[in-house]
Amino acid sequence: MRLVLLGAPGSGKGTQAARLKAELGVPHISTGDMLRAAVAAGTPLGLQAKAVMVAGQLVSDDILLGMLEERLARPDAAHGFILDGYPRNLAQASALDQLLRRIGQPLDAVVKLEVPSAVIVERCRIRFLAEHRADDEPATVTRRLAVYAEQTAPVAEFYARAGKLQVVDGVGELDQVTARLQAALGVTESEPVFRDPRSLAKAPEN
Ligand code: AMP
What is the mean pLDDT of the chain? Predict the structure, then answer.
């Protein structure tokens, strides 16, 4: 299964990907985690990315594409992956399309976790208290949500137009959300809970 998980920062992509990876038998590839590891290790890439991440902005497309290409070439990704945090803008979405076409591994599914921004702000506030992630600081969360609305929301529209997008309600208990994702991906018997992606064009971005 080659899956892209979309959703605003704090929508639960990372948590849900970690839950789905065993069941799907594929690695969870989080570009945010990879960048945080590079920052922690003090690599040149990490040093370059750090200030951008703390400011809640996006790290350059070139850096991300190189990092992703290297990661997808590792043997554990040969039979699929869950991408979390990539693509983050339209340029990355088309770079991913080209990369996957080149390596003959087209996406099987794109699922967006839909969570209202008031819930996101509260989740990030709680995560900030627990994990002290600098970019969960309230002012930075506001900036990240603005970057998301401006640059990442069009990525969902891009996949919706291609007929690939499913939108899953990301509000509720962790198990409930996992069950909705499993249903959307066809890995359980129950009915998927998702909204019509055509409504995306009109819906205000949360
Ligand atoms: P995340 O954990 O996915 O919320 O990512 C944390 C931060 O890492 C983001 O706010 C960005 O600064 C950076 N980042 C992660 N993924 C990407 C990406 N695909 N493109 C650009 N920057 C990214």
Answer: 92
Domain end call among 73, 106, 136: 73
Which of 35, 45, 142 has most ligand 1 atoms within 8 Å of CB, for mutation? 35
To test ligand 1's pocket by mutation, which of 16, 29, 33, 58 has the most ligand atoms within 8 angstroms of CB? Answer: 58
Does 128 share its domain with 162? yes
Question: Within this chain, do residues 66 and 151 fall inside the same structural domain, yes or no?
Answer: no
Counting atoms of ligand 1 from 1, which one is nearest the CA of 57?
12
Nearest residue (by CA) to ligand 1, atom 19, is 86
- The total domain count for the chain is 2
Q: Give dist(CA 100, CA 65) in Å, integer.
A: 12
Domain coverage including residue 60: 31-73
Residue-wise pLDDT for 108-155, tens only, equals 999 999 999 999 999 999 999 999 988 999 999 999 999 999 999 999
Residue ending a domain, among 73, 94, 128, is: 73
What does the pLDDT look like over 146-195, one tens digit per residue? 999 999 999 999 999 999 999 999 999 999 999 999 999 999 755 444 55
What is the maximal distance between C-alpha atoms in the chain?
47
Nearest CA, atom 14, ligand 1: 32
Q: How far apart are CA 141 and CA 7, in angstroms?
A: 14
- CA-to-CA separations, 76 to 32, 55, 79, 81, in angstroms, rounded: 19, 33, 7, 8
Tell me the pTM: 0.89
